[in-house]
Structures are given as C-alpha cells and as structure tokens.
C-alpha cells in the first residue's frame, strides 16, 4: 500500500469472517537477530517479522560486520563471526525500543566506540538506568540527556561480576543486560549476576522470552529468584530458530472479531503463544462484559486495543498498572484519552496514571466524525481502527505508522472485507 496521510474507515455491515495470520513476533525476531548476530556461524530464522523495527536491528548488525540475508518475506539467514565490529557511523534505530536497548548493552562487546541513536521519539525514551548499570560494570557509556543517543566505548567484551538494574521504566533493560552477559572476556570463568533494584519490573513475560531465546542460542542462564539471574560466559552458538506469530498484533484481530461478532481464524490458538500479550485474549473474549478493573502491567502493548474495546463494553473499565505506557512510542495514556474524547467528550479520563474508559455500547452505529492523532504510534493507529469498524467517521492520521510492527495491517483488514478511503 502507498503511504497516505489519512485513512477513513467504513463501518462494517456484517460480522468479520475469514483467516488472517499475524506476522512474526517483533520481540522474538529482534532477540533472535541479535543472538544470531553475536554467534559464530549461520543461523536461519524462520517465521520472522519484516518491519521497521526488525529492519533497524538487521541494518545495525550489518553495519557491525554481520551478514544478514533475506531469502524470503519471513526468513533471515544470519552469519556472524562471534564478535561485532565497530560501525563506521552511529547506529540509527528509529523508534525501535528493543533494538535500541538491546544493542546499547551488546555493543559493549565491540572493540571501539559505538553511538546508538534513534529518531525524535526514541530520543525522548529513557535509557539512563541501563547506562548506569553498564558503567557500574566498568563499561564507558554516556547518554547526557538520559535518552538516546548513547555513546558506548567498548573494549571487546562485556563485564563480569554483579550488576544492579532498576527496570521500573522498562523490562528491556534487564533483557539487554541478560543478552550481553554471555559476552564476558575470553577466559573469564566468573558468571555475571544481574540483580533487580527498585520497584517491580514491568512485564516479566518479556524477560522469560529473553531467557528462552538465549538458551536456544546456547547460553547458560539461571533465574536464581524473582530478582536475580546468573549468566555464564559461554558466548552464543548459531542455530536454526522458528519465531511464533506476534501476540500484540493478534489482539487487533481478536478485538475485530468480538466487536463485530465475527469469526477470524488467526491460525494460532491463544494458549500456544509464549508472549505476554496473549493474556489479553481472556479479557477480550469477555467482551462486552470485560471487568471493571484491568491490570495492564503484564500485557502493556495490548492496552490500547482493550481500551478502545472498553468504549463499547457494557460497563466502564479502569486501567491500572499502566504507568510506563507514558514512555512507549508516545505517551499512550494521553494518546488514548485524547483519541477517545475526540470521538465523544467524556469517554476517557486520566486519574494519575490510571485510565478510565466510560462505556457505551450505543456508540456502535453512530456517526461521530473524528480525526485520530496517532502520534506516530503504530498501536494507537491499529487500536483506533477498531472503533472505525463500528462508528461512522473515524479517520486515522498517519496510517503508515503501522509499519513499525505490522506493515500489512490495513491489507489484513481489507482481506476481511473492511473498507476505507485513503487521502
Ligand atoms: O522486551 C520486549 O520485547 C518488549 C518489552 C516491552 O517494553 P518495556 O519493557 O519497555 O515495557 C514492550 O512494551 C515492547 O513492545 C517489547
Ligand atoms: C512499546 C513498543 O515497542 P518498543 O518498546 O519495542 O519500541 C510496542 O511495540 O508497543
């Protein structure tokens, strides 16, 4: 599809029925790309996501001497030498949080200086706690604004010993340290211990994805207790690896199904996903009787989907445990309240970091023209598209921002019979 500035949805006239498979998981693809790039030898990654976020990771690895081939639309063939080389220019990672955080730690293993940078949105997303943790290991890292760009002066290996990390703002800091930890100095026989400091981590399920991917690439990592992990200095071993579909992408299809009373076969049962957002399936399946209070802490990326559905629920919904939605691609609590109130004043209220969504099943079928500012955030675009399935007049601004994780999103909706005008 060509890039357009606006997309106005046509409400559906019949339940949505058909088969649409979500693309590969962004989280798992970017973990597998990195670990394959750090390994010596060739790894074949199948079922992978090809989108802005994974392209940035692949390009960064290429810039550091890794061969990344793309034989088809869902496969990466990655050949590494067992070490990353210093890139000739700063690594530009757009607004890909995973690529930015994971590489910030991994480039400590480069022998030379690496600048990790992103776009204007990424330059507002905090990375200070990760930089502090790297410095405590003796790695020269600097991020003067507390956000990218980060300059890392690597000395050819990661550190050893114990490192503390405050992961309250992002679980990606823990994943970043875990994945870099096997890259200890040659001959090191001491493990790295990663210890949580501060408040409880956001979405623990992402750390579990990290451990699974690390073990698949030969790492020896042990969770000692809820706050401590021990990682042996093994490096990584190339392997073939299959990536499951993206659970966050699946939430839009589950949402479209319940909102229209349809039947959309996404090809993967909800219980088969290992990603945290699969938890959203149970909540979405309860629509239009979703609970009065929903804790988003363990399924953060699904909250925009559920918040838009909540407007059509039988009863209001309060979202709690979502404070770090304020530091995602945009301030998602603000973007959701702005968009919902734009559809109808009073639909959403922010109370501190809670979001209250007033419900009105009678919204369906109404003509309520609203231009939804997506703040360049794929999840805001994809979730408000659901409102446009039931309300006449919903226009999504900058619809191409879905390219961050689901470039085929609009085509997928069209394949189910959804209509829209582009302008
Ligand atoms: O580790 C990951 O793959 C991710 C962790 C989450 O971010 P935070 O850890 O910053 O909450 C999530 O929102 C993001 O889309 C992907
Ligand atoms: C928060 C997200 O992405 P990231 O942190 O990887 O940029 C997301 O995809 O919703």
Automatic annotation (TrEMBL):
Residue ranges of domain Enolpyruvate transferase in the record: 14-413
Region (Disordered): 1-25
GO cellular component: cytoplasm
Listed EC numbers: 2.5.1.19
Top EC category: transferase
Catalytic reaction list: 3-phosphoshikimate + phosphoenolpyruvate = 5-O-(1-carboxyvinyl)-3-phosphoshikimate + phosphate
Record Gene3D superfamilies: Enolpyruvate transferase domain
PROSITE patterns assigned to the protein according to its UniProt record, in alphabetical order: EPSP_SYNTHASE_1
Role description: Catalyzes the transfer of the enolpyruvyl moiety of phosphoenolpyruvate (PEP) to the 5-hydroxyl of shikimate-3-phosphate (S3P) to produce enolpyruvyl shikimate-3-phosphate and inorganic phosphate.
Family recorded in the similarity comment: Belongs to the EPSP synthase family.
Protein name: 3-phosphoshikimate 1-carboxyvinyltransferase
Organism for this UniProt entry: Rhizobium straminoryzae
Gene that this sequence comes from: aroA
């Amino acid at each position: 599809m060509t890039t357009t500035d606006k997309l106005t949805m046509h409400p559906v006239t019949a339940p949505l029925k058909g088969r649409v498979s979500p693309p590969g998981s962004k989280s798992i693809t970017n973990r597998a790309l990195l670990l394959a790039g750090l390994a010596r030898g060739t790894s074949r990654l199948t079922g992978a996501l090809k989108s802005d976020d994974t392209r940035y990771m692949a390009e960064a690895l290429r810039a550091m001497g890794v061969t990344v081939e793309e034989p088809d639309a869902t496969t990466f063939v990655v050949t590494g030498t067992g070490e990353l080389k210093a890139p000739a220019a700063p690594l530009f990672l757009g607004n890909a949080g995973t690529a930015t955080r994971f590489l910030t730690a991994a480039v400590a293993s480069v022998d030379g200086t690496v600048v990790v940078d992103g776009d204007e949105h990424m330059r507002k997303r905090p990375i200070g706690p990760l930089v502090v943790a790297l410095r405590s290991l003796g790695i020269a890292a600097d991020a003067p604004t507390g956000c990218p760009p980060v300059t890392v002066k690597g000395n050819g290996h990661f550190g050893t010993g114990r490192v503390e990390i405050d992961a309250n703002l992002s679980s990606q800091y823990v994943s970043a340290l875990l994945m870099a930890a096997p890259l200890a100095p040659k001959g090191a026989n001491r493990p790295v211990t990663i210890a949580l400091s501060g408040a409880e981590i956001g979405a623990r399920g992402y750390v579990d994805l990290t451990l699974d991917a690390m073990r698949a690439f030969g790492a020896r990592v042990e969770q000692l207790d809820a706050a401590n992990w021990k990682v042996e200095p093994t490096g990584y071993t190339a392997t073939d690896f299959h990536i499951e579909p993206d659970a966050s992408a699946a939430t839009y299809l589950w949402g479209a199904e319940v909102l229209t009373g349809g039947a959309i076969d996404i090809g993967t049962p909800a219980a088969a996903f290992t990603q945290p957002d699969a938890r959203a399936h149970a909540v979405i399946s309860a629509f239009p009787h979703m609970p009065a209070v929903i804790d988003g802490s363990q399924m953060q990326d699904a909250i925009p989907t559920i918040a838009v559905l909540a407007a059509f629920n039988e009863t209001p919904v309060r979202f709690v445990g979502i404070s770090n939605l304020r530091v995602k691609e945009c301030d998602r609590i603000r973007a959701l309240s702005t968009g919902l109130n734009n559809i109808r004043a009073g639909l959403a209220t922010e109370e501190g970091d809670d979001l209250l969504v007033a419900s009105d099943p009678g919204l369906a079928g109404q003509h309520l023209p609203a231009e939804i500012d997506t703040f360049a955030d794929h999840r805001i675009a994809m979730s408000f598209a659901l409102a446009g399935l039931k309300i006449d007049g919903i226009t999504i601004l900058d619809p191409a921002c879905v390219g961050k994780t689901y470039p085929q999103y609009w085509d997928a909706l069209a394949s189910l019979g959804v209509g829209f005008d582009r302008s």
